[in-house]
Automatic annotation (TrEMBL):
Family: Belongs to the diaminopimelate epimerase family.
Binding locations of substrate: N13, N64, G74, N75, N162, N199, E217, R218, G227, T228
Annotated localization: Cytoplasm
NCBIfam families: DapF
PROSITE patterns listed in its UniProt record: DAP_EPIMERASE (PS01326)
Pfam family for this entry, one: DAP_epimerase
Protein name: Diaminopimelate epimerase
Main location: cytoplasm
GO molecular function: diaminopimelate epimerase activity
Pathway: Amino-acid biosynthesis; L-lysine biosynthesis via DAP pathway; DL-2,6-diaminopimelate from LL-2,6-diaminopimelate: step 1/1
GO annotation terms (biological process): lysine biosynthetic process via diaminopimelate
Encoding gene (name): dapF
GO CC field: cytosol
Site location (Could be important to modulate the pK values of the two catalytic cysteine residues): H164, E217
């Protein structure tokens, strides 16, 4: 059965995007595991499924590389936003996700020639039950030392709505990733604190409107970027006065995004803005257990994106060069 599938990325967080008119058309877990193998066209961090919705313009499902399903994906949502808006010839749309119907919108390019979308990240909760997470009968972990995890890093747990643990760190924890790796390998999967595992990010403050974030993702490992993690990190930085501006630049190993954090009566409105790049389209045979790429057609978009990243990296700290 020959079908078209797209390779896309947001900040180098790379996915295959596949549209189907039937949610149960295929064994998506087995397809995702095959697509994400490095030996198959370099692999990817997951599969974005675009499906019909009865309540929104389309529905997005996100399957991580290991076959687990995520409730949200910020970088992926920008790619789905572009796909749906271009298909429907609209500048704005609503996308149904596992836990919320989210607003998405075409934006002015973050850099010449780089298609850019803004997506709503919601709902936001610091209540540990929402992640779910358990720690010393606390209801929240808000910018506090957790001696079981580290003697000097302050952590915050937040769901947006997928679960994130954000550590605000010094440069030594970015140049050497050993601490983040071992903590994330323990916390990403089911453990005594988080029954579903948790994404683990280390965020380094750079300027009063700029942070750097690196994420070890549940179901994947280190990625170039994680959109929900960067938005959650921007929120943590803002409410703890680590940054002052409403719009925060978040640098990441794959490029950069902008995150807008607005507080309204104790509720947070979060927006993630960044590239939605199509790398290539493929014809693929998705016959069960006999997957095969038949042809590949590259776009020129990656060249423009690389120019953008080069400029950002020249302007930013040397450790991400
Ligand atoms: N990279 C994504 C998040 C993907 C899901 C995550 N691995 C999870 O299991 O929660 C993003 O851009 O937000």
């Amino acid at each position: 059965m020959e079908r078209t599938i797209f390779k896309v990325h947001g900040s180098g967080n790379t996915f295959y995007l596949f549209e189907s008119d039937q949610e149960t058309e295929h064994d998506w877990v087995s397809l995702t595991k095959w697509l994400c193998k490095v030996e198959n066209e370099g692999g990817a961090d997951g599969l974005l499924l675009v499906l019909p919705s009865t309540v929104a313009d389309a529905k997005m499902r996100v399957i991580n590389a290991d076959g687990s399903e995520a409730s949200m994906c910020g970088n992926g949502l920008r790619c789905v936003a572009r796909y749906v808006c271009e298909k429907l010839k609209k500048d704005e749309a609503i996308i149904e996700t596992m836990k919320a119907n989210l607003k998405v919108k075409r934006e002015e390019p973050i850099y010449e020639g780089v298609p850019t979308y803004a997506v709503e990240i919601s709902p936001v909760s610091f209540n540990l039950e929402s992640l779910p997470m358990k720690y010393n009968n606390q209801s929240e972990i808000n910018y506090q030392l957790i001696p079981e995890f580290s003697q000097d890093i302050k952590y915050t747990a937040v769901s947006v709505p997928n679960p994130h643990l954000i550590g605000i760190v010094g440069e030594q924890y970015i140049t050497n990733d050993a601490h983040q790796t071992s903590l994330a390998q323990f916390l990403n999967v089911e453990n005594d604190y988080c029954s579903d595992g948790i994404n683990v990010s280390y965020a380094l403050p750079l300027k009063n409107d700029t942070i750097f974030v690196r994420t070890f993702e549940r179901g994947v490992g280190f990625t170039n970027a994680c959109g929900t993690a960067m938005t959650a990190s921007a929120l943590v930085a803002k409410i703890n006065n680590i940054v002052q501006n409403e719009t925060i630049t978040v640098l990441n190993p794959g490029g950069f995004v902008k995150c807008k954090v607005i507080e309204d009566n104790g509720e947070y409105q979060l927006t993630l803005i960044g590239n939605a790049t199509v790398i290539a389209s493929y014809e693929i045979d998705i016959e069960q257990n006999n997957y095969k790429f038949i042809s590949r057609k590259d776009t020129d978009e990656q060249k423009e994106y690389k120019k953008c990243v080069k400029v950002v990296r020249e302007e930013s700290a040397s450790f991400i060069l």
